[in-house]
Amino acid sequence: MPPATQAPQSPGPALELLVHGVGGTTPQEMLDDPRTVRITGDATAAIYRRAEDTDAEQHPERYRDRPIPEAYCWSNLTSGNGSRALWLLLLPFMVVNLSHWMRPTARSRTRTVRLYGVLVRLVALSLTVLLTAAACEVALDLAAWQCAGVPDCSNQRSWLGFLSTAQGGWWSQPGRRLALAALVPTALVALLWFLSNRTWSAYESQRPLTGTEPDEDLDPAPAPATTGTGPVVRPALGRPGFWYGRRLVARLRAAHTAAGFLTVAASVAGAAARHDRAVTGPVPGIIGRLIEAALVLGGLVVLWVVCRRGRSERRLDNRLDRALITYLPGAALALLVLAAVYAAWSRPGWASSGALPGDLAFSVITLGQGTLVVVLAVVSLSLYRRTPEPRTVMYGLGGPVVAMLACALGGVMSGGVSQRVADWLDGPGTPGMGRSSVIEGPPVLLSWQASVIPVLLVLLAVPALLLLVRTWLAARALEPEIDRAYEDERPDPARTRQIARIQAAAALTDSAPWILGPVCGATLLLGAAAVCGAWVSGQVPGLAMKGSGPFIESVAQAAQSTGSWMVGLGFILFVTWGRRAYRDASARRTIGILWDVGTFWPRAAHPFAPPCYAERAVPDLASRMSAWTALTRGRLVISGHSQGSVLAASAVWQLPAETRGRVALLTYGSPIERLYGRWFPAYFGPGPLHAMHRSVHCWRNLWRATDPIGGRVRLDEAPGPEVDRGPLKDPLVYGRTREHPLPEAVLGHSDYQADPVFAQERAALLERLDPVLPRQADGEDTAKATRAQGSSGKSSG
Q1: Which residues contact 427 (CB under 8 A, 6 or more apart)?
Q2: Can you say how many angstroms the Cα of residue 217 is from the centroid of all Cα atoms in its chain?
Q3: pTM above 0.90?
Q4: Is the CB of residue 277 less than 8 Å from the CB of residue 288?
Q5: How many CB atoms lie within 10 A of CB 305?
Q6: C or N: which end of the chain has fewer Cβ atoms within 10 Å?
Q7: pLDDT tens digits, residue range 589-634?
Q8: Residues 643/600, Cβ–Cβ less than 8 Å
């Protein structure tokens, strides 16, 4: 008698953890069931299951043919009520924070990497000073100094009556007006501190689950491993402290808050000190000099704090520099109060005339930002040349270009507010244009900067037109390929053109650097020209070009007026578009991907940037995967769409090696390589992605040629099974058939689950995971089963 054949062991329970992308997908939509139950989490981010699957672990026999579906919903971390549209006012801060993470791959260049981080943090500090200076320009210069000092202006504004020199009241002295108006920028800085502190408590304070910290990391940017099966290197995103930047954000928040208060204090005390030095009055001039010296000392301390320390990621850093974060903003605020008292000291003969000397301040900020961006570009090129990667955008200059964009956005927002307030206060006149103006208006430099915007738009039209022509030609070239792909169908020229246009338009994503780079380069040159024009002429462009000929005069005046209205309109559109994006799902899907990319990264450069939702989402996902695999010893497929695929990959990097061996990764519509790999090469470049491929048990990526966001991972040459599958056929059906009597939509970036390939690949991933026995109720039985089954972790490499 032959020996009895043993019954095959049943694989353990399988879990599919779904992570949605941009757009705020509901758990009912993700699980395709109106009855869902929250398993763990809160109203902000939570794990959901179908109601009938809540006890799935107790009945694994029900799920032999399919995995247990769970949905992780994180949309409330980035969206919610309409008031969050105000976060768009922090857009320059978010953009400059992005540039910190865009540095090229670097190996054995620790000092250069630190220099890169210091330069980005200095650019971020300049944006805080610029925003505060713009608030001082509006409240102190335009309202309190200029309009309240001119009866023709203050008499038309009843709310300025008690400050008017015509009234002769206690507040009519210029110093007292400035001290009172300083409450506006002070309140703005305090609001930024409050928002940053509140989000810091909710996001940066989310510690990873104890016991899930991964093994120690090695080189943060390993070299691509295309052959061999050497040791797996953990990338930077796998570091224990990567998603826990509490200490750095607290330090930067203290420094930026102090910088804001010091900027206001300098605006208030500077005017009074200049008056006391010019005339002999009741206030000793030494007081103003002492306050100015204290302001310089405070500025040096702020610079030291910003440059002294960067991120600490190799371990969970739970320390806080409590003395620094408490006393630095407090000392700056005390100095501001002292400056306000000093300015409010009675000076009977003091009268305000002209404008506060803000041209020098804005010129220094502009020149400083341009210099920092140029030095940052030199450092980036040095890093790129040491470790060149062909897919990196603009030869490693993505960070400096984005930093320049942040400075341009800050200039547009600050100049737009100043221009619009000046026009409103001046009534029918045009500030800075001479006799028709009641007030002198904002600094001349802001008018010059506004005037170059129409020129920049004209320059932008050239690459935009070239891209349109290129896209049209690409669509024509794609038409024969599309007909061959649907060779069983009868060709329809209109249908073929539609699919070709969508594919060609989707490819425009890869051309974005060739628009952004030249535009930012032109912005740098035009900004330098604006500073030179303001310094040389001392007048707004419309007056500076007088006598240059009728044509040049008319062009200068048109550029000045058009640019002034455009910067004001742009500021208004920031708020209106942002509010619509948080209320209208379709608008959110349109611009949401860029916003979610910006808020994915921790606040490493600017503490007032919108909070990083990944500091909550990544620990959530890593903790859920660790907890479920530890309790059940079962198989797990984490399935991420779009931005959810980036969160899924980041969470897998955070897992211990033993847990990663029981996890499969399924991504679709993923921007991991197409967007993150090209723009953030140090963190998603070839080295980290190869390390991911070799460390996770198995990985599959689905993509379409019609998808403008997702794309290939480009790891097909790596050891182990192929990662990419695609391009998937889209649309699935070319024309009308009996089964599909209506035309099928081109899905593009959405509904990957509708493709039969999705279910096939998910099943294949589960089969490739080693079968293990489910955890028994008895601990002894569990230990026996584990010993009999053996380790389930394998590397695909």
Answers
A1: 153, 156, 438
A2: 26
A3: no
A4: yes
A5: 22
A6: N
A7: 555 566 777 889 999 999 998 888 888 899 999 999 998 888 888 8
A8: yes
